[in-house]
Amino acid sequence: MDSIIVRGNGPLKGQIPIAGAKNACLALMPATLLSEEPLTLTNAPRLSDIRTMTQLLASLGAEVTALQDGKVLATSCHGEIKPVADYDIVRKMRASNLVLGPLLARLGHAVVSLPGGCAIGARPMDIHIDALAALGAEIELKDGYLHANARGGLKGAVHEMRFASVGATENFLMAAVLAKGTSVLKNAAREPEIVDLAKCLRAMGAQIEGEGTSDITIQGVDRLHGATHPVVTDRIELGTYMLAPAICGGEVECLGGRIDLIESFCEKLDAAGISVEQTHTGIKVSRKNGRVRAVDVVTEPFPGFPTDLQAQMMALLCTAEGTSVLEEKIFENRFMHAPELVRMGAKIEVHGGHATVHGVDKLKGARVMATDLRASVSLILAALAAEGETMVSRVYHLDRGYERVEEKLSAVGAKIERVKGD
Ligand code: EPZ
What we know:
Layout: E1 3-7, E2 12-17, H1 22-28, E3 39-42, H2 48-60, E4 63-67, E5 72-76, E6 84-85, H3 87-90, H4 100-107, E7 109-113, H5 126-134, E8 138-142, E9 145-149, E10 158-160, H6 166-176, E11 182-186, H7 192-203, E12 207-209, E13 215-219, E14 227-230, H8 235-248, E15 250-255, H9 263-271, E16 274-278, E17 282-287, E18 297-298, H10 310-317, E19 323-327, H11 337-343, E20 347-351, E21 354-358, E22 367-369, H12 373-384, E23 389-393, H13 396-399, H14 405-410, E24 415-419
Parallel strand pairs: 2-15, 3-14, 6-7, 10-11, 18-19, 22-23
Antiparallel strand pairs: 1-23, 1-24, 3-5, 4-5, 7-9, 8-9, 11-13, 12-13, 15-17, 16-17, 19-21, 20-21
Helix pairs in contact: 1-7, 4-6, 5-6, 6-7, 8-10, 8-12, 10-12
Bound molecules: ligand EPZ.
The site of ligand EPZ has 23 residues, from helix 1, helix 5, helix 6 and helix 12.
């Protein structure tokens, strides 16, 4: 397993290109199941999760060809479809459950393994099941697999989700676009990745309106045609790299960044004393002056503070002036980066869903271990300005969601390198 070594360093300077959104692409790729015609995705990120989704779609009978060094994904699904999403692939990546809605819409049945829990939580699927059942699907759990059937096809319905689940919203959208009649999804997730999926489905001929709000209306159509769609910018990669100059000092421009994708995060950076400026080519970030100020953070569904940036924000607050309280309201176990940051000298107390961070002057390099995707990158951010050397092990977690992190950070002056493991 590879490790990444970071040596604490001074101010950063330069530009970091931001890739297409992993969490948008993982919802867009299954949309190919909805049509016999090809769906081409441009601005696709080069990540291991995308390769896992490619594997899964291939196992169902769809084709995904990576072009232009992986930045373009040519997908199609015109042959025989095998509607079984196998445990061996699904357990590796929860987003595999996003084939459930499109398979039901296209074929009227699907067998999808339950993903099982992961480091950050139990990750149940009850909200997905209730949403698809509202469209007429009968879903039962057998041997760890969800067996879903919609004899006679899906029918439009009005459904209110108990929680604005991102994945359940995506599954509902991809099922309802081919259902008979009109559907309305209430308390829908409002994330930019939902908006991006709706735009792609509309380009394929779907009739959708209201995406980005809590109420989305879908008018079912008989079939969808092919399309070419650009994957939206990755707001989580964007926020992650904006924290590098915030932690180290200096000035970095994140190319392709848009403040409207992460407004609540930018408000918190501003409160912490970080300058954030939208330019024509991206977002320019620098530390205003003096020390970063402590701020409190509560993670919420969009447009609230993103849970996927909580770990990275904690890395900044470890050396802020004062005490910050972070409340994680989306996942039940998303503070595993805290004990690793404590090994670097941070002062953090975790009680249930709250983490209290008492700012210290400087962190110290140490050997630390990545536990999940966002925790991994928070350790790297913390190491950028720590005294001495930090070695982050198990960086395969990192490669799921960040392409070439050591290259992107080295390009702005960070002392970071990857050490190939066995
Ligand atoms: C998506 O996961 C993202 N993944 C996650 O990003 C992100 O953290 C999450 O949305 C919240 O923004 C992808 O888009 C591939 P949810 P998803 O359904 O759809 C509970 C990353 O780091 N829940 O909105 O699985 C669930 O347990 C990843 O890139 C149910 O209880 O998130 C969680 O506590 C991590 N029952 C909360 O809702 C359900 O049926 C949010 O889940 C579904 C979810």
